Here is the input.
Amino acid sequence: MEHVHGNTLTLRSIGIDTYRENIIYMRGDCPVCRSEGFTALTRLVVANGAKSIIATLNVVHSDLLRHSEAALSTEAMKRLGGVEGGSITISHLDPISSLSLVRAKIYGRELSDEDLRAIITDVTAGRYSNVELAAFIVGSAGDHLNERETIGLTRAMIASGQRLSWGPGPIMDKHCVGGLPGNRTTPIVVSIVAAAGLTIPKTSSRAITSPAGTADVMETMTPVDLGLDRMRRVVETEGGCMVWGGAVQLSPADDILISVEKALDIDSEGQMIASVLSKKVAAGSTHAIFDIPLGPTAKVRSRAAALALKERMTRTAAAVGLNAEVLITDGGQPVGRGIGPALEAMDVLAVLRHGAGAPQDLRERALVLAGSLLDLSGKFPPSTGAMKAREILESGQAWRKFHAICEAQGGFNEPKAAQHQHDVLAEHDGIVRSVDNRRLARIAKLAGAPRSAAAGISFHAPVGRMVRKGDLLFTVHAEGLGELEYALAYMRQENGTIQYD
Amino acid sequence: MEHVHGNTLTLRSIGIDTYRENIIYMRGDCPVCRSEGFTALTRLVVANGAKSIIATLNVVHSDLLRHSEAALSTEAMKRLGGVEGGSITISHLDPISSLSLVRAKIYGRELSDEDLRAIITDVTAGRYSNVELAAFIVGSAGDHLNERETIGLTRAMIASGQRLSWGPGPIMDKHCVGGLPGNRTTPIVVSIVAAAGLTIPKTSSRAITSPAGTADVMETMTPVDLGLDRMRRVVETEGGCMVWGGAVQLSPADDILISVEKALDIDSEGQMIASVLSKKVAAGSTHAIFDIPLGPTAKVRSRAAALALKERMTRTAAAVGLNAEVLITDGGQPVGRGIGPALEAMDVLAVLRHGAGAPQDLRERALVLAGSLLDLSGKFPPSTGAMKAREILESGQAWRKFHAICEAQGGFNEPKAAQHQHDVLAEHDGIVRSVDNRRLARIAKLAGAPRSAAAGISFHAPVGRMVRKGDLLFTVHAEGLGELEYALAYMRQENGTIQYD
Here is the structure.
């Protein structure tokens, strides 16, 4: 009888993926469940030798587990370094002290740098449940964080992970503040800037709620899951890289917060600025351009909001030692033609290879950003950036640099087309009045993007175009007929994705 | 090939209890998962014939499920009326429109009665995920709801479930605003008030985070899970009842919000008032006494807060047609000796039976509340309530009424003692200076209360008592040695539950 070790259980793997939240599954009739009760959201400390995590309890009332067993969600298993059949011990969770600071914020108190560091340390260590993360996000939503707090949060996020350094600068970077399908300028900008002789070690994210992140797009052409050592070698040889940021653990608190923030669809100016800037500083960047697309269905929807964001962002960047320039750009409709990893990659390649059918809007946006970065670097005569960027692109230097970076990352492949296509045609004559970015993104996701790399949308109806009945508005691409049907079912019930009359 | 029905799956039961949150388990390689993606907190509509629920997706990467199968958490299965082997269809979730009102509240907008009704309607229908519930709770936390909004929320909560009526009043009720272990006055008060000839159809809750709710305590002596019809018959015969409120679905939105609110440990005056008052009005009460224990480890910790709460509560009650009186009482330490269902029942019985060892503090508190209720009813000469209450208790009428109510509810049983006891003794001489209610409650819960009805604490060291080395401070009661050990392990690492020097 192991009465006094009622809190030691054998670990089983049952393969349930709860994404970032740690869940522990235990039988309702085990001693721990009996004492902790069956209430929602009971949190426990789970230890495996010296390692421990905090997990939320889900109670099992079936033979999924034996009395002496417990199971962990996929991520929790990894974080704890648990193995099938191993022993774990369960203990109750003492209150997480930084949560009292979250409560103070909710009740309107200003948080100090130290407070924010305590919160972010606990968030990074996985000590907050999803509802606790939601509490912090809501408490800091809207304009609840002032400028001092925004700076403090940025610093705390920078400190939460590793910080890269790349020797003498300038170290260039760019970032687009969300919300514009197909706006895949990064591969073009990085190629131009690296070809100009500057250093631009670009890390990018995968899609969270969008149909593609830059890392997803690059992955259709080259490996992006490089460790830090391989990333360094690529940058040393080519001056730039385009890798997935997740592999190098920059500002990990941010990844955790974003997962809940997106689910809530709550905008927090302070958190957004801290998120974006912390990633740049942690990546070792010294000079960065930020692109804020402005439009009725983009993330930022009014000029006043865009200008306020620009102002706050510029000052916060200065406070954490980053030379930043913020550009407000047109966010009225998708950029390029493709929405989805492979389809966007094809647009990027068309621009780089200077093909006849290259999307001009994508090309021009990339040139503006690349030109601004060249100017911001201070390495060229003032205001010559735009001209130099165009020269590098048109001469084919940018394409050669892109190809060389891909080769250094592990080889270049052409992105592949999807198995199934469905053309959406105009039902009557008209002029395109508006395009709903969010609905287009939704259709691309339902069609399988970004998991199915070739899935998504190719878009042919920019605002202002005259269409005749039967003209192609857009094409839905999917790898399976089931996914195609799923996307089309949504599309049929949602009218007005593209308005033309 | 069922390409176009990729969203129809066969339902399996896997017995995972996620408490109130609906979870759907689906294989990562099924068409729906592929299109919705693997992000956290993806929400889906799950339909079974005409019934549908909203559930959060957890992805399975194992043989727990076949490709064509999906499983639901225990509660979700019940809510959907699903059966093992049945067919369900999955579809994407359109945005829940009331969430935009929650966002507006977060950004500081005042909500109208209509806004609050829309939110509460969606909450009641289970359309909010836990993080969305957290967002509403945090958005309304502290003093973020003004008096108009508090009244609106109370009305919306009343409208969210059924509303009982009991014929001509007055219909009496009482409620204690949380946080004082062992404060089990309700059975005594109901017995006195019913014995006085008034109507008091009392519904009570089970414990959520405490070691016992009144329904848990009563259940050690009589059935409490009565449907509305049986409850009516008891009240018709005896004038009062003491049943579990969960069976009669009063203010169901409140139960949903409370589960997340407790997990966050966030106080929201507006929500608390709406919660308490909506339950009373929905129960058909016309006259109610509210007891606010005030103390350093009680729910309300300052006199100013207690007075503000009293004021807001009285005015909100008047606005929704409830005659309310609010009493601020001493919340410095546990009331009676028992903490845990059966142990508290024994205290109640000792008072009712007028036994020599009956806890005088519990007895006196019950008499104050019962006396106030008699006065509030307007059915007796002014200010005679206290005297009349004492007379009813001392004459044994209250005990006879209690016994009769239990018999009407299905029979009376004596509460049972636990199998294992551990005495905690004073380690030195001293005078008891303070008692940490929260730690005592925690120990009682770890020992198994309220699930093990006989588990808990009997407490023998009230503030001011002189203790000698070796005197009994309290006894821990548990049904299993594992649970006893679990409670003692916590107790040993937490010094200062009782301070004496």
